[in-house]
Design brief:
Helices cover 6% and strands 39% of the residues. By secondary structure, the protein is mostly beta strands.
């Protein structure tokens, strides 16, 4: 009898389990579409990237077929694509585990264009089970554009709250540029002053020594600096990081003097590479003509490397990696408006004392490139109704941290969930005067997003 009862109980459990499985909501369709429906290809660029996005990561390597329709420009002689196209069709394979793909368009050398040329792209098909989404067409114009607005999923990359990328967004061109945060260590200012920044997106810190000869700096010079130069939440000193408001007159590395003897050696803790700490370095920077010369080595090394870093007026900064030398990070200073990243900011220990603190999902404006922004509360005017007439009463600011972390909430006590603040949005005035309104749609699982891949929406309010 007991065996019968056990069999019945097991059978009942099995039926209930199957019923629960049948009741589980199926995953929504995985859709592929273009990141932007319109994109510009500026005359000073020889190559650009057209991006595709999936609703979620592909379960297997997925082939996407795209048709090309050039207008006023010929494939093979005036432009090419990577991967190559055959009969005006190319295939992009999105790797398993990825939610994005792309292909490149390259202009022929010494090509003269009128600016009216364009290529229309259409997603023709996607390998099962991926389906084609609503944004299935995109046009690449061989000129600068002023976008009327779009939605973008920012490619912060893996890592969740410690997402590996910084993402630069150019509203007018519907473009984003994702760059690994740990791909650089020092930035050399391209403006009139001679300034060098450290990498606040990796938690870097620095300490000035009295010495001017790198060969005289050894591990002994790091004694006592562990608690000063290793930043963890609640430790460290603001004097050992660049000004968290972005004031270039307050960088931890002082102005590079025209008098070589005044340029001291600094010990640099470059912060972390992923979860691993980077090796500490000793560096010294001097002027070379209108540019810089960097001297650098790991702490225990008895010789050092030198690297000339010329100024580039088209960039806010020219960047150097201790491991790779000169490297490309942010786009030209006229080609981005906001940067989403992890950032070194500050936290208050008391009413009078603050310490360096790393914030995930932090947003800077391109204040050095002339961008301004304002925060607008929906109690004053809603995002949907905000229009050109509202601009005159909008309090634009040039502060780098106008947006900062104000756009979101973090998970907290008493059941407070992380999510986008829906009671505010932002108005951005780009470097040439175009004005956009911007709102964040989601950024974490609590508000329907994925940490590291925030979704934003922006619309043109006034075109110059």
């Amino acid at each position: 009898m007991n065996k019968v009862r056990s069999f019945i109980a097991l059978l009942t459990f099995s039926v209930l389990l199957n019923a629960c499985k049948q009741d589980d909501a199926p995953l929504p369709d995985n859709l592929v579409q273009f990141e932007a429906s319109e994109q510009g290809f500026e005359s000073d660029k020889t190559e650009t990237e057209v991006k595709l996005t999936l609703t979620r990561s592909a379960e297997t390597a997925t082939a996407i077929t795209i048709d090309l329709l050039p207008s006023g420009i010929a494939y093979g002689t005036q432009f090419t694509t990577t991967p190559a196209a055959t009969n005006n069709s190319l295939t992009v394979t999105i790797p398993a585990g990825s939610n994005a793909g792309s292909f490149k368009v390259t202009k022929a050398a010494s090509l003269f264009l009128s600016g009216k040329e364009a290529i229309n792209f259409t997603i023709k098909s996607a390998a099962s089970p991926v389906l084609v989404g609503t944004k299935s067409t995109s046009v690449l114009k061989f000129s600068s554009i002023v976008s009327t607005g779009s939605q973008l999923k920012l490619n912060g990359g893996e890592g969740g709250s410690s997402a590996v990328n910084s993402v630069f967004v150019d509203f007018s061109n519907n473009a984003q540029t994702a760059v690994a945060r740990n791909s650089w260590d020092l930035g050399f200012y391209g403006g009139a002053d001679f300034r060098v920044i450290i990498n606040g997106t990796t938690g870097a810190s620095a300490k000035e020594l009295t010495k001017t000869d790198l060969t005289q700096v050894t591990a002994a010079d790091t004694v006592g600096l562990k608690n000063t130069l290793i930043l963890s939440q609640g430790t460290g000193n603001l004097a050992n990081v660049d000004d968290v408001e972005g004031d270039l007159t307050k960088t931890v590395i002082k102005t590079i003097s025209a008098t070589d003897a005044e340029n001291k050696v600094y010990i640099i803790n470059p912060g972390t590479s992923g979860t691993a700490a980077k090796a500490w370095y000793k560096v010294r920077v001097v002027r070379k003509g209108t540019g810089y010369t960097l001297q650098y080595a790991q702490i225990a090394e008895t010789t050092f490397k030198t690297l000339d870093v010329p100024k580039d007026a088209n960039l806010n900064f020219s960047y150097v990696s201790f491991e790779k030398g000169l490297t490309t990070v942010e786009p030209a200073k006229t080609a981005w408006d906001i940067e989403w990243t992890l950032a070194t900011y500050k936290a208050a220990l008391s009413a009078t004392e603050s310490v360096p603190y790393t914030y995930a999902d932090f947003v800077f404006i391109n204040h050095l490139g002339g961008v301004e922004a304002a925060e607008v509360l929906t109690s004053t005017v809603s995002y949907d109704t905000y229009a050109e007439a509202n601009i005159t009463t909008t309090p634009f600011k040039k502060d780098r941290n106008v947006i900062g972390s104000n756009w979101r909430t973090s998970a907290g006590p008493n059941g407070v969930a992380a999510g986008v603040k829906t009671d505010r949005f932002y108005v951005i005035k780009d470097a040439v005067g175009n004005i956009y309104k911007l709102r964040f749609i989601n950024y974490t699982s609590s508000d329907g997003g994925v940490r590291g891949y925030p979704n934003i929406e922006y619309k043109l309010i006034k075109k110059v």
